[in-house]
Amino acid sequence: MTEELQALEKTHTWDLVDLPHGKSAIGCKWVYKIKTKSDGSIERYKARLVAKGYAQEYGIDYEETFAPVARITSVRSLLAIAAVHQWPLFQMDVKNAFLNGDLTEEVYMQAPPGYSDYPDKVCLLRRALYGLKQAPRAWFAKFSSIVHQFGFSSSSHDTTLFIRRSDKGMILLLLYVDDMIITGDDHSGISDFKLFLHQQFEMKDLGHLSYFLGLEVSSDSTGYYLSQAKYASDLLSRAGLTDTKVVSTPLEMNARLTPLDGTPLSDATLYLLHILRYIKGTMFHGLHFSAHSTLDLCAYSDADWAGDPTDRRSTTGFCFFLGDSLISWRSKKQHIVSRSSTEAEYRALADTTSELLALRWLLEDMGVTHSSPTVIHCDNRSAIQIAHNDVFHERTKHIEIDCHLVRHHLSAGILHLLPVSSSDQTADIFTKTFPPGRFRDLVSKLKMASVKPP
């Protein structure tokens, strides 16, 4: 608590004033937390003063609240690029980050518990104290303005990605609230930038990237590995399944859980336990980002047909590889019933195309430009024919216009549709269940690798 109060005073978080007539002061409280390392050991004990932001009123003491955070796809893309270029990955953390954000609204807060030197005064907040609705936005605005002074610019496709290009090379920075990843080939520039950050904020230099947002990052001569062994271990501990037996697939073949159809289960938690047993057996599996790979982008797009027995909607599945590295995937039920398997596959192609555009723009900001069309593998030739032929007939006239963006970007040379056999359709794993043999084959196609435990 003493350390936290010192930080609050150092950043001049508030002024002690009399509460003006007609104004109200929100409350605050202390929150205590034990911070752990990636191996589960205790890193430190932490106390934080938090404002009771739920008492704020819109238009009076706050307005805009949105603040962006790094997309997980951006994290994986950054790792894939760094692996190929053999760039080092550095991690830094800003201490008491929100306290650096400037408040533009007039916010009054009661004096914190244990801070009783002036019992009749209230705190007029100057800084974005944790708990305030606008605190994340104020901090991000402050950080953005500071790094722009060093020559960085923000990506328009992920505003938490900052890029600095110079004659010496490029620096990429990805921010998630107060945690950041820094990489690039401008090594002297990275050192200068770290020093610059230390001059602007109270920083913690965590060295090479090893643990970020619950993701464990390790490396060897073949590239980087991304896993979640600690998260899986914590999940199993909470469920009391640390010594449970393991299974080879996350769901039994042809098993479907529905709220209304079929015979009621005597114990529905058995299917949850089945998933946890699969996690137990794959705790030390992770994604491999190869150093010996190209940076060519390709995708696999697939869909089942009327797979949900309750509403007969289909499931879209797709995955994107940057060279040999898996950077994006999705498994999501379609919002409308498809009248045929071809229609379901075409709708999946539309979703895949949308993700393709976003990834191409993001990768271009990261210095990876694709001048040739991106290949999308599809195992439905009829869906490919619909995309190639601007023909409306009874089977396709009802498909929404937005689905035909596939056709537009195909003719623009942004993508190329390539037929693939069902046995080689990697995205199949995102649409249905499989027996153990086929499931293992598909997992291997996703470039999953065994990561050695620490």
UniProtKB/TrEMBL annotation:
It comes from the Eukaryota. Pfam families: RVT_2. Signal peptide: none annotated. Residues 12-252 form the Reverse transcriptase Ty1/copia-type domain. This is Reverse transcriptase Ty1/copia-type domain-containing protein. It comes from Fagus sylvatica.
